[in-house]
Each structure stands twice: as C-alpha cells, then as structure tokens.
Amino acid sequence: MERFFFFMVLLVTLNAPFAQGSGHIEEIHSLKEIPLTNMKPGTVIFLDMDENVLVSAAGAPPVLKYLASAHEQCRLLEPDLAQTTHNMKTCIDGNASNVMIIGLTKRCMTYGDGRDDEADAVLEKAGIPLSRNRFQHLNGVNLCNNPCAGFRNGVIYTAGGMKSPYADEFFQIAKIVPSLIKFSDDLKENLIEMILYANKNGIPIDSYLMNRVHLLNSFIKGDKRDTRLPVNFDPDRYLHQHPDIFRVVADRTVAEQFSFAQQHYLIWGKSENRFLGYPDDFCPQKYLSLNQDIEQYALAHNLDRTAFAWSHYKDFGRMENRLFKKAP
Question: Where a domain ends, among 240, 269, 298?
C-alpha cells in the first residue's frame, strides 16, 4: 500500500506545472553509465552504499549475503570504482571542487553498542574520492535529531530513515544549494522519494536504478551461470583480482564483462591456476602459525604480517599446498 501511494504521488507530482525536476529513472549496471555531459558547478552526486557501491554480509538481503565473504566487512562492487568516481568529480574543467560526491546509506553511523559503521572507512581505504575534506568540519554531526544517524567521512547515514530529509538537513547545515542532483540507488522507492523531494524544491535530478548485484547474482546462481564453472564462480571478483583481464573488457557492458570472465577462466584461467578467492575458513594468523618460515620472512623484512599472509597465500601458498588450518 505504501509503495502504491509513492507511485501515485510521483505521477501527480511529475505532471504538476511546478515540477522542475525529472521523473525519469534509468536502469544501469555500472556507475560508468551515468552521463557526465550535463554536469554543472554545484552538482551533488549521491551514491547509495548498499548493493550499489558495496555489499556486506551484515546488511545485504538474505539472497545476496553470500556475495560478501567471511573475510570482508564490505565488498566493493566495481573493479574500477575509484577511477570512475574520480572522473565524475573532475569532469568539469578538471576542477574537483565543482562536483560533490556523497555516500548515502540507511545504515547507522553509530550503533547502540557504540560501534561505528565501517562503510565510510572502507571507501576511504579503497581510494573512493568522496567529498571528505570539503565537509571535514561536519564529521560526526547528527542529523534529524537521530543519535544513530549523521554525517561522517563523506557519507550520510540515515539509520533506517527515508533519505531525503537527511539529505535536506545536510544541505542546510553545509550551506549547499545543489544545481543538480544525480542519485544512484538499487531500490526504486528510494529514487522516487528523492525525485519527489527534488521536484518540490525545484532541483533538477537525474535518477539511476542500479541493478549490478542482481545481474551478478544471475551469473553466479541464475540462468547466466555456466555449469562448467566451479560452484559460486564470481565473475566480478575474478575481474577485481586480475586487473590484466579486466583491462581487456573495461569498456564493455557489465554483462559482457561477466560473460568474458566466465569464458576466460574456462579457456585460460583454470590452466593458469588463476586465483578465485580465499577459503571461507582461511585465517591469516593461523596460516602464519602453521608456516613459521613465512612469519619469519615477514618479521625479517619488517612487513605487516597479516597483510603478508593474505598476499603469500594468494600468490604462492595455495599452489604450494600450504596448510592454513590444522588437519581434522
């Protein structure tokens, strides 16, 4: 009933004479598909976090939880996301100050047990150029009188609330009057809500329905899966792990990229022993304790032991049949 109401209100709003925004929603599978030709100084790009930019086992719908492994807090969903967002931010005369990129999520900024959500830290570590420095003075500020919601490190957290009221309050305290909003989300109701907000306030808006995770799911467990592949072969992760393969198809559609990843593994990758991922029960500390020579090498060369354990297993250990857990 609530969703029906949303659609009816949208229909009325978009046909009203005062509506200045756009009600069109374009389906995409990559942020690279968002056109940059109509960008103008003062553009705000809102990137939904969940099932759009990243996926986490804790926050994903049950059917998609398997996409994030036990080793990841969050998993980025596009191999070249950092470059794509950099291009967005500098698309107007190469000046990064003309475009603001802000994450938007219904996660909690801080949970009831005092624990901070990790989404903003994951994106920063991955080099995603959100507008952190520009709004650094607002880090930690709460929004809409919600103690679990707020702004941190380039991300607006709504703690389950509708997104537009939090975006609006952020605009007010940051003293922003957007010339254009570009908003990408994997849920149509979130897009509709933001369209209604933009139209009410006379802000032009371009809206994009991100369906990457659903396409990926069809390649792993659905009708696009090649049954000759290992169970749960993940074409997106395969491209992440092997940049040389991704470069070959970087300019293709996402469906073509995923299909190429499947065929590459079957024709070349399997015989080349290409890495597919870590075992679910892989533990870097246990790997080091069972392989003292690796730990001693890391210590002797002043390397981060945990990071070295991950990289050693990927590059050498799996092919050397190194133990990563005690035999039963």
Answer: 269
